[in-house]
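Record 1 of the preview.
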Amino acid sequence: MTFEKLRLFARRHGRRMWVRATVYCALGVVTALVGALVKTWIPESLAGRIGADSVGNLLSILAASMLAVTTFSLSTMVSAYSSASTGATPRATRLLIADSAAQSALATFIGAFLFSVVGLIALSTGLYGDSGRVVLFAATVLVIVLITLTLLRWIEQLSSFGRLGATINLVEAATRRAIQAHLRAPHLGGAPGMGAPDGGHPVEADRVGYVEHVDVARLVQIAADRTCVVHVLSRSGAFAAPGRPLLVVEGARPDDETLEALREAFTIGDERNFDQDPRYGLVVLTEIGSRALSPATNDSGTAIDVVGTATRLLCEWATADTAGDGLHHARVFVPSIAIDDVFEDVFPLLARDGAGLLEVGIRLQKGLAAIAATGNQAFATAARRQAAQALARALDAMAFEGDRAALRDAAAKVWGA
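->
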């Protein structure tokens, strides 16, 4: 396994709830037992002066309360996941599950519970003695302070955890991180791709799924060892299946060992993720807006919020400075993300579902005009195309002539026509 694969594995599994909880539990156990290790350095007379004899009662209260708080927190989090799945989109639930603040709160409560239980067991066996009780008492006070601070922050987070607005903000933050990572390396460190060459040897995926990560450094190593050139065709987010080439090798036909090594440079999973795929975050935002415009929900305000969020992200993308991107690996060519495809991920679906709503139509025209005004030619061209299509959809769907006239006037105003 290459270093990039190990880093990807650690980052992905580090977001799982049980990993953080396990670390906090281990810290709780170590903290509870440290008194037995350092008791020889503590004077026995100190225990009576600071009230360390009461540590058993404190630990009993702490163990009972932490068990109740942990159970309550788990039920609240499950309810929040269900609310986000039904109110926003199931794809956004992964961000809630990976939320570091929620994981830290739950892990703190579980770790404090385990600390209390281990401390009580050690006390009942006489492991500490009077000197060890002093250390356990000090550790208990510190744990109580930590729990208090965590509870205050957790209470504040519970007021918005799983709510639609907070979920949109989470998706926006994840999408922004993906866009910024893309801007730092638009071609993942490779050279700009120019399409598959004639006479190349395609390498297909051996399973069905989505490309989650492309290890360009590994492809460079393979290309250098085999003296060939690699043209990547499937970036992160692309659908992979037998018959759909992941890449094309220019040079000698690769043997079976090389084919396997090339496939291993692509991480293929069952779902798309946000890491190397800035388009996926925009897709998830669009799903939220589309669900809000369904007849069962009929929430045009959320759709307008989604349009504004997408506009903000695309404006940041259009105005970002990419001059620092350089050619790192001349033997590996990676295609650029097509800006037209980015716009197709967002605006056609919202324009279709909100075609009969004047307020959504006006917001789409204003958002697309703002993107076009950034001065980025590729973004401006795509924005004008989407604005024309959205206007045509809306005019065709609106039955009231007054709404059609208002939309025409709004479009003419923002586009300066």
